[in-house]
Amino acid sequence: MEIDQSRLTERQKKVYGRIVEIPELEGQYCLLSHEVYTIHRKRNITKETKHIDIFGPGWVFFKALSKGTCFAVIRDGERINLGTQIMGYAPGNSVIEWALPIGYIEYELLVCEIPIDKNAPNNPICSNLTSFNMNIFDCFETFFMNWQELNTMQIQRTTEPTKLALDIQEWIHKNWQKNFKLQDLAKELGICPSLISRYFKKTFGMSPLKYTNQMRIVSSVRDLLKSQRPISQISFDLGFGDTRQFNEHFRKIYPVKPFAFKLPKR
């Protein structure tokens, strides 16, 4: 696995301190460069929560700690326990259904759009982590130096998606920044809208439009952190019809306004 570690750490030094604290999310969002940012969150969960993550175009490396029971994923309706200290990798546009345990959890993500070599895993995988205190970059390097030898677990949401569901997903990944309707997708694929929704939801757990909007919102965090552009321009560039629509979808995923992620002007 080839990635310029010095490039990342040097960039981190140059922008050290450019951290957005969001108390409502119990987290820190740190912009390291235009392509790289980190997320560090701590949460207390009162009941086990199932949550589907739709990752944006960039890949993600993560480490997570639970002081309760194991983190788990749901694959084909089956719960698969992963452990209380885990680390892992998700390529861009991945879909994972988590079962978050009751109690205190802490996790850190490295979200990056710098390409990595072709030997990277094709699917999301994770393995056990011996020490959560390890720096995210050291953890990343350790993982990718050894991932083919590690006892890794597949964590993608489903193992047998239908061809139709994958065709719909591919179309969305090419057009997610356009303001389209389900009828547009149906016309392009030559299939009735109800059939599209049924097959897609069976594989990915949500409608095509909800999938698209969650992907847009996740991608918007990087744009909000790195850009001084108005939120109205960011929402338009992401394919939302207007700022009100963008705000509504944003608050379904993050219980704060998009403005909370904006870095102060320098």
Helix-strand layout with pairing:
Blueprint lengths: L4 H10 L4 E4 L4 E5 L4 E10 L3 E6 L4 E8 L4 E5 L2 E6 L1 E6 L4 E6 L2 E10 L12 E4 L7 H11 L6 E2 L8 H13 L6 H8 L3 H12 L3 H19 L4 H7 L5 H11 L13
Helix pairs in contact: 3-5
Structure description:
With 266 residues, the protein is α+β, with helices and mostly antiparallel strands. It folds into 2 domains: 5-154, Jelly Rolls; 163-261, Arc Repressor Mutant, subunit A. It is 34% helix and 27% strand. It is built from 8 helices and 12 strands. It has helices at 5-14, 136-146, 163-175, 182-189, 193-204, 208-226, 231-237, 243-253; strands at 19-22, 27-31, 36-45, 49-54, 59-66, 71-75, 78-83, 85-90, 95-100, 103-112, 125-128, 153-154. The strands form 2 sheets. An 8-stranded antiparallel sheet has the order 1-2-3-10-5-8-11-12, sandwiched between helices. A hairpin with a 4-residue loop joins strand 1 and strand 2 (27-31). Helix 3 (163-175) packs across helix 5 (193-204). The two termini are 36 Å apart. The mean pLDDT is 87.
Main sheet record: 8 strands, antiparallel
Number of helical segments with 4 or more residues: 8
Q: What is the number of strand segments? A: 12
Strand line-up of the largest beta sheet:
1-2-3-10-5-8-11-12
Mean pLDDT over the full residue set:
87
CATH superfamily of the largest domain: Jelly Rolls
Distance between the termini: 36 Å
Structural class: alpha+beta
CA gyration radius, whole angstroms: 18 Å
In the CATH hierarchy, the architecture of the largest domain is Sandwich
Order of SSEs:
HEEEEEEEEEEEHEHHHHHH
Determine the CATH topology of the largest domain: Jelly Rolls
Query: Overall 3D geometry?
Result: globular
Low-confidence stretches: none
Number of domains: 2
